[in-house]
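Morning. Coffee machine broken again, so started the prediction first thing and wrote up yesterday's gels while waiting. Chain of 74 residues, entered below exactly as on the submission form.
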Amino acid sequence: MKRAIPKRCARCQQEFTCGLSGCWCSQITIPESQYAVIRDRYHDCLCPACLRQVSIGELDLTAEQPESSSSESP
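Came back before lunch.
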């Protein structure tokens, strides 16, 4: 029996299912520069939509500003 766990995308907050060791994400090739950003910026997995956008070059995480945890006002 294949196990799956529900997750929420660390980037867009979309819900998706992780297949653990047999996950769908193992079939997606990510450029090393983008993988490094994912690893450093996000605490957990990205959803299929975000990961596919990264893999085909529609989403460049190196050009995207990281989300700020504080809101500063001038």
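The chain is about 25% helix and 10% strand. Going to sketch it on the whiteboard this afternoon.
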